Amino acid sequence: MLRVGINGYGTIGKRVADAVRAQPDMEVAGVAKVSPDYVALGAAEAEYPLYAVDEDRTDGFHEAGIDLAGTVDDLVADSDIVVDATPSGIGAQNRPLYERHDTPALFQGGEDATIAEVSFNARANYDEATDADYVRVVSCNTTGLSRLVSPIHEDYGIEKVRTTLVRRGGDPDQTGRGPINDALPDPVSIPSHHGPDVQTVFPELDIDTIGLKVPTTMMHVHAVNITLEEAPDDVSEIRDRLRGEDRLLMIPDYAGIDGAGTLKDLALDAGRPRGDIWENCIWEESITIEGRDLYCMQAIHQESDVVPENIDAIRSVTGLLDGPESRALTNETLGIGLSRLDNAEERAVDRQTAD
Amino acid sequence: MLRVGINGYGTIGKRVADAVRAQPDMEVAGVAKVSPDYVALGAAEAEYPLYAVDEDRTDGFHEAGIDLAGTVDDLVADSDIVVDATPSGIGAQNRPLYERHDTPALFQGGEDATIAEVSFNARANYDEATDADYVRVVSCNTTGLSRLVSPIHEDYGIEKVRTTLVRRGGDPDQTGRGPINDALPDPVSIPSHHGPDVQTVFPELDIDTIGLKVPTTMMHVHAVNITLEEAPDDVSEIRDRLRGEDRLLMIPDYAGIDGAGTLKDLALDAGRPRGDIWENCIWEESITIEGRDLYCMQAIHQESDVVPENIDAIRSVTGLLDGPESRALTNETLGIGLSRLDNAEERAVDRQTAD
């Protein structure tokens, strides 16, 4: 049983911990946290051994009645691999700690690509992380783009990608962030850093991105253009191709899902943990071909789409399973895919055939 | 087994259906819905018999591959009691349908109080609904105020309540509603209708309310003032009194919960269905006494706080259990109360005592 330590128990860390616990081949060695807030209370309730990030900050946990198993140094010593889910930039400060213990580590997409040997996406380059000591799981936006680009690239060839990323201002618990009541060019320089980040996964890909930030907290939305090398005869061919991908969710027009609010409501109705949406959500009606230009819009759940990627990266680094096996196991254990949408589609098709 | 029909399967109806299913003494006869959207797909997935509200609108369900068990008339005929969770004003149009079938019905707080013999809150007036044919479960805001007023009224007497309701603009899926980027006096007339609505539960209570609407979707927030007839010696007495109430959740200061965003994150971390918060959330630090004036702030989850009240109202109308028994069973089956907050508090107290 692989022992996974999680350093940083926030939006991503707490989800990775629960996902690790759901796997048959790994277990949570413990989680490290800075402050004894409600998220720490959740870790205690989940009975994850809790480690303080800093010796100087153990008193707060003590006062809140939370027991500590030790400090983050103890956690790393007791782990076969560490998932670093600390805020952007802190991961780089932590790397010497992992080196000292000779423990492999995953970093998140907020870190600079140079922190690791490989920037990872399970669909695009699973094998590249095998036997690497340090791997960076790319950001939510880069994950979303990589998943979409992969099958298109394989089947049609890509001349160029041009994408506008309309990004949420902060996560639901980040009350203090902006913007409020504005749509900010962010960064104002073009191309934004997202394009080069996709190139850490697809080095040869020609891609430019433009970034904005808006006053929402639920999901990012991408307006995507991909100029194909060779266009299919019919757009339905692309739709079928994308529908066949396990981490792309097609949103049918009749379902009345008009944005992130209804998508989150759908996920909560489905009983998903924390209402998470691990898949790219692509509005089926938006998939359009004009000449060799493919267009679509997709929503990306920034809190959770990298979670299955972290699980797969753990398996790649440690050699537990090959790519297709790992992805299938991760999908099954987390519950990826939403049968109520697929079934309705099938039932409707069956019925039309019967009519 | 009491057969409960649910007419209107939206924000409230889908939650009431799941809550009914969780009870040992009742079952879902079926749910009625207008349109075959993603929420209807959820009903199909949950295997609730689905009834069309309108004969003329069955084609859409057919096209979406959703089977129908009949129309709403069939549902009422097959139910021992109906929970009407249709949009405000539609309940009044439906009452003749329930009368024709001689079927008791619950209406929601969006209906005028005159629709029913009793306006109901489980903590305040459970017994008044027993044997009534038509009962109105008061709105989310009135429910929140009634729960808070009850224990204070019993122990200290209330001279007057003055409350400002800072209300969310719409539910998370109601993308088309306002306001955006404004805080609207709503209604601009004072007192707002909320005070008189609380008086449908507490006829003798002197209460004035002011309503506003802001661009949030997660929860309402109440700024409450209650002038007591007799003030306690120490504010901690009030805190302990409120902490003893099963549907009031005390939010401790150290937990870092600063608003509805973190409250929802907490509920999702706790694995609650749809991240629901059935309890009033009272910031413990806000509970303050100045002379005979008691102040506090509480957040009210508009999507779910009336759900346990509907379950209790079903039992009151049909005489299944008495009030304390019903409330206890509802609390237990839904999972009301958040042990991670209570336990932390107890652990901290234990530890301080030990120190």
Kindly describe this structure.
Two copies of one chain form a homodimer. Chain A has 355 residues and is α/β, with parallel strands linked by helices. The first copy, chain A, is 36% helix and 23% strand. Chain A has two domains: 2-138 and 306-334, Rossmann fold, CATH 3.40.50; 140-305, Dihydrodipicolinate Reductase, domain 2, CATH 3.30.360. In chain A, the strands form two sheets. Chain A has an eight-stranded parallel β-sheet with strand order 4-3-2-1-5-6-8-7, with helices on both faces. In chain A, strands 9, 10, 11, 12, 13, 14, 15 and 16 form an eight-stranded mixed β-sheet that branches. In chain A, β5 (81-84), α5 (90-100) and β6 form a beta-alpha-beta unit. In chain A, α1 packs across α11 (307-318) and α11 runs antiparallel to α12 (323-334). The longest helix of chain A is centred in the middle third of the chain and has 17 residues, at 140-156. The termini of chain A are far apart. Chains A and B meet through α2, α3, α10 and α13 of A and α2, α3, α10 and α13 of B.
